[in-house]
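#lab-general

N.A. 3:47 PM
ok so I finally got the sequence cleaned up, no stray characters, all 220 residues accounted for. can someone with queue access submit it? mine expired

B.Y. 3:52 PM
send it over

N.A. 3:53 PM
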Amino acid sequence: MNLPNLLTLARIFFVPLVVAALVQEKRVYDLEFGSISIQLGNEMLALGIFVVAALTDMLDGYLARKWSQITTLGMLLDPIADKLLISSSLIALVEVKAVPAWMVILIIGRDFAISGLRSIAMSEGYMIPASDLGKSKMVLQVAAVVLAMASLRRPEWQTLASLVMWASVIFTLVSAIDYARQFWRKIDVSVKRRRRRELLLLERSRRRSARSGVSPAPRF
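B.Y. 4:20 PM
back already:
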Protein backbone atom coordinates (compact mmCIF):
# COMPACT_ATOMS: atom_id res chain seq x y z
CA MET A 1 0.00 0.00 0.00
CA ASN A 2 1.42 3.38 -1.00
CA LEU A 3 1.65 6.54 1.12
CA PRO A 4 -1.34 8.39 -0.43
CA ASN A 5 -3.61 5.45 0.42
CA LEU A 6 -2.21 5.31 3.94
CA LEU A 7 -3.03 8.99 4.37
CA THR A 8 -6.58 8.31 3.19
CA LEU A 9 -6.91 5.49 5.74
CA ALA A 10 -5.51 7.80 8.41
CA ARG A 11 -8.28 10.30 7.61
CA ILE A 12 -10.85 7.58 8.25
CA PHE A 13 -9.09 6.75 11.54
CA PHE A 14 -9.34 10.41 12.61
CA VAL A 15 -13.15 10.43 12.26
CA PRO A 16 -14.04 8.80 15.63
CA LEU A 17 -11.37 10.90 17.36
CA VAL A 18 -12.97 14.13 16.13
CA VAL A 19 -16.44 13.03 17.22
CA ALA A 20 -15.27 11.76 20.62
CA ALA A 21 -13.34 14.95 21.36
CA LEU A 22 -16.26 17.17 20.33
CA VAL A 23 -19.23 15.54 22.07
CA GLN A 24 -17.63 14.66 25.39
CA GLU A 25 -18.10 16.77 28.50
CA LYS A 26 -16.16 19.99 28.82
CA ARG A 27 -12.57 19.19 29.61
CA VAL A 28 -9.25 20.99 29.58
CA TYR A 29 -6.10 19.13 28.59
CA ASP A 30 -2.68 20.24 29.78
CA LEU A 31 -0.10 19.76 27.06
CA GLU A 32 3.56 20.24 27.83
CA PHE A 33 6.26 20.78 25.22
CA GLY A 34 9.47 21.11 27.22
CA SER A 35 9.14 24.32 29.22
CA ILE A 36 5.97 25.34 27.36
CA SER A 37 2.60 24.38 28.87
CA ILE A 38 -0.64 24.76 26.91
CA GLN A 39 -4.22 24.30 28.12
CA LEU A 40 -6.45 22.91 25.41
CA GLY A 41 -10.23 22.51 25.61
CA ASN A 42 -11.95 19.54 24.00
CA GLU A 43 -13.48 21.79 21.30
CA MET A 44 -10.05 23.01 20.22
CA LEU A 45 -8.69 19.47 20.42
CA ALA A 46 -11.46 18.33 18.04
CA LEU A 47 -10.67 21.29 15.79
CA GLY A 48 -6.98 20.40 15.71
CA ILE A 49 -7.69 16.76 14.81
CA PHE A 50 -10.16 17.84 12.12
CA VAL A 51 -7.67 20.27 10.54
CA VAL A 52 -4.98 17.57 10.43
CA ALA A 53 -7.47 15.14 8.85
CA ALA A 54 -8.52 17.75 6.28
CA LEU A 55 -4.89 18.41 5.39
CA THR A 56 -4.38 14.72 4.61
CA ASP A 57 -7.11 15.12 1.97
CA MET A 58 -5.03 17.67 0.09
CA LEU A 59 -1.76 15.85 0.70
CA ASP A 60 -2.83 12.39 -0.46
CA GLY A 61 -4.20 13.71 -3.76
CA TYR A 62 -1.09 15.82 -4.37
CA LEU A 63 1.28 12.93 -3.66
CA ALA A 64 -0.75 10.48 -5.73
CA ARG A 65 -0.54 12.79 -8.75
CA LYS A 66 3.10 13.76 -8.22
CA TRP A 67 4.33 10.19 -7.75
CA SER A 68 1.89 8.69 -10.30
CA GLN A 69 0.39 6.49 -7.58
CA ILE A 70 -3.28 6.93 -8.45
CA THR A 71 -4.91 3.56 -7.73
CA THR A 72 -8.40 2.12 -7.91
CA LEU A 73 -8.36 1.63 -4.13
CA GLY A 74 -7.43 5.26 -3.60
CA MET A 75 -10.16 6.47 -5.98
CA LEU A 76 -12.71 4.45 -4.01
CA LEU A 77 -11.48 5.29 -0.51
CA ASP A 78 -10.86 9.02 -0.96
CA PRO A 79 -14.51 10.14 -1.44
CA ILE A 80 -15.62 7.73 1.30
CA ALA A 81 -13.08 9.20 3.72
CA ASP A 82 -14.16 12.75 2.82
CA LYS A 83 -17.84 12.00 3.36
CA LEU A 84 -17.18 10.21 6.66
CA LEU A 85 -15.09 13.09 7.99
CA ILE A 86 -17.51 15.85 7.00
CA SER A 87 -20.72 13.98 7.85
CA SER A 88 -19.51 12.75 11.24
CA SER A 89 -18.18 16.18 12.19
CA LEU A 90 -21.45 17.88 11.19
CA ILE A 91 -23.54 15.36 13.13
CA ALA A 92 -21.34 15.95 16.19
CA LEU A 93 -21.81 19.72 15.75
CA VAL A 94 -25.58 19.18 15.70
CA GLU A 95 -25.23 17.27 18.96
CA VAL A 96 -23.50 20.24 20.61
CA LYS A 97 -26.03 22.63 19.01
CA ALA A 98 -23.46 24.47 16.91
CA VAL A 99 -25.11 23.75 13.53
CA PRO A 100 -28.83 23.49 12.57
CA ALA A 101 -29.90 19.90 11.97
CA TRP A 102 -31.74 20.66 8.73
CA MET A 103 -28.57 21.94 7.10
CA VAL A 104 -26.74 18.76 7.99
CA ILE A 105 -29.61 16.65 6.64
CA LEU A 106 -29.42 18.49 3.30
CA ILE A 107 -25.65 18.05 3.05
CA ILE A 108 -25.64 14.35 3.98
CA GLY A 109 -28.73 13.62 1.87
CA ARG A 110 -27.06 15.23 -1.13
CA ASP A 111 -23.98 13.03 -0.67
CA PHE A 112 -26.09 9.87 -0.55
CA ALA A 113 -28.01 10.92 -3.67
CA ILE A 114 -24.89 11.76 -5.69
CA SER A 115 -23.20 8.52 -4.59
CA GLY A 116 -26.24 6.66 -5.91
CA LEU A 117 -26.10 8.49 -9.25
CA ARG A 118 -22.39 7.76 -9.57
CA SER A 119 -22.96 4.07 -8.86
CA ILE A 120 -25.60 3.90 -11.59
CA ALA A 121 -23.30 5.77 -13.97
CA MET A 122 -20.43 3.35 -13.30
CA SER A 123 -22.72 0.38 -13.94
CA GLU A 124 -23.46 1.91 -17.35
CA GLY A 125 -19.77 2.39 -18.09
CA TYR A 126 -19.58 6.12 -17.34
CA MET A 127 -17.47 8.01 -14.83
CA ILE A 128 -18.82 11.30 -13.48
CA PRO A 129 -15.73 13.29 -12.44
CA ALA A 130 -15.67 15.77 -9.58
CA SER A 131 -16.63 19.20 -10.90
CA ASP A 132 -15.25 22.57 -9.84
CA LEU A 133 -18.53 23.15 -7.99
CA GLY A 134 -18.04 19.89 -6.10
CA LYS A 135 -14.49 20.86 -5.14
CA SER A 136 -15.64 24.33 -4.03
CA LYS A 137 -18.39 22.68 -2.00
CA MET A 138 -15.82 20.54 -0.19
CA VAL A 139 -13.64 23.56 0.62
CA LEU A 140 -16.63 25.47 1.98
CA GLN A 141 -17.75 22.50 4.07
CA VAL A 142 -14.30 22.20 5.64
CA ALA A 143 -14.26 25.95 6.34
CA ALA A 144 -17.77 25.80 7.80
CA VAL A 145 -16.85 22.93 10.14
CA VAL A 146 -13.65 24.69 11.24
CA LEU A 147 -15.48 27.94 12.03
CA ALA A 148 -18.35 26.13 13.76
CA MET A 149 -15.90 24.29 16.03
CA ALA A 150 -13.94 27.46 16.70
CA SER A 151 -17.14 29.36 17.54
CA LEU A 152 -17.74 26.98 20.45
CA ARG A 153 -14.78 28.65 22.14
CA ARG A 154 -15.11 32.02 20.38
CA PRO A 155 -18.80 33.02 20.33
CA GLU A 156 -17.99 36.17 18.34
CA TRP A 157 -17.26 33.91 15.35
CA GLN A 158 -20.76 32.44 15.28
CA THR A 159 -22.06 34.92 12.69
CA LEU A 160 -19.19 34.20 10.30
CA ALA A 161 -19.58 30.45 10.89
CA SER A 162 -23.30 30.71 10.09
CA LEU A 163 -22.64 32.64 6.86
CA VAL A 164 -20.06 30.11 5.67
CA MET A 165 -22.42 27.25 6.54
CA TRP A 166 -25.16 28.89 4.46
CA ALA A 167 -22.71 29.24 1.56
CA SER A 168 -21.77 25.59 1.98
CA VAL A 169 -25.41 24.51 1.80
CA ILE A 170 -26.02 26.62 -1.31
CA PHE A 171 -22.96 25.20 -3.09
CA THR A 172 -24.00 21.72 -1.97
CA LEU A 173 -27.39 22.07 -3.66
CA VAL A 174 -25.98 23.75 -6.78
CA SER A 175 -23.33 21.05 -7.21
CA ALA A 176 -26.01 18.38 -6.76
CA ILE A 177 -27.98 19.92 -9.63
CA ASP A 178 -24.81 19.97 -11.74
CA TYR A 179 -24.12 16.27 -11.05
CA ALA A 180 -27.75 15.39 -11.82
CA ARG A 181 -27.49 17.29 -15.11
CA GLN A 182 -24.36 15.34 -16.06
CA PHE A 183 -26.09 12.09 -15.10
CA TRP A 184 -29.19 12.66 -17.18
CA ARG A 185 -27.20 13.93 -20.14
CA LYS A 186 -24.90 10.89 -20.26
CA ILE A 187 -26.88 8.07 -18.69
CA ASP A 188 -30.48 8.76 -19.58
CA VAL A 189 -29.68 9.16 -23.27
CA SER A 190 -27.57 6.00 -23.21
CA VAL A 191 -30.27 3.97 -21.47
CA LYS A 192 -32.94 5.19 -23.90
CA ARG A 193 -30.80 4.24 -26.90
CA ARG A 194 -30.13 0.80 -25.47
CA ARG A 195 -33.81 0.21 -24.73
CA ARG A 196 -34.69 1.35 -28.24
CA ARG A 197 -32.23 -1.14 -29.72
CA GLU A 198 -33.63 -3.92 -27.53
CA LEU A 199 -37.17 -3.13 -28.64
CA LEU A 200 -36.12 -3.15 -32.30
CA LEU A 201 -34.40 -6.50 -31.89
CA LEU A 202 -37.46 -7.90 -30.10
CA GLU A 203 -39.76 -6.64 -32.85
CA ARG A 204 -37.59 -8.21 -35.53
CA SER A 205 -37.57 -11.48 -33.62
CA ARG A 206 -41.36 -11.42 -33.39
CA ARG A 207 -41.68 -10.78 -37.12
CA ARG A 208 -39.35 -13.64 -37.97
CA SER A 209 -41.24 -15.91 -35.57
CA ALA A 210 -44.57 -14.87 -37.09
CA ARG A 211 -43.32 -15.80 -40.56
CA SER A 212 -42.07 -19.18 -39.35
CA GLY A 213 -45.14 -19.80 -37.17
CA VAL A 214 -43.10 -20.18 -33.97
CA SER A 215 -43.82 -18.04 -30.90
CA PRO A 216 -40.74 -16.17 -29.63
CA ALA A 217 -39.39 -17.16 -26.24
CA PRO A 218 -40.21 -14.56 -23.57
CA ARG A 219 -37.34 -12.40 -22.33
CA PHE A 220 -36.96 -11.50 -18.70
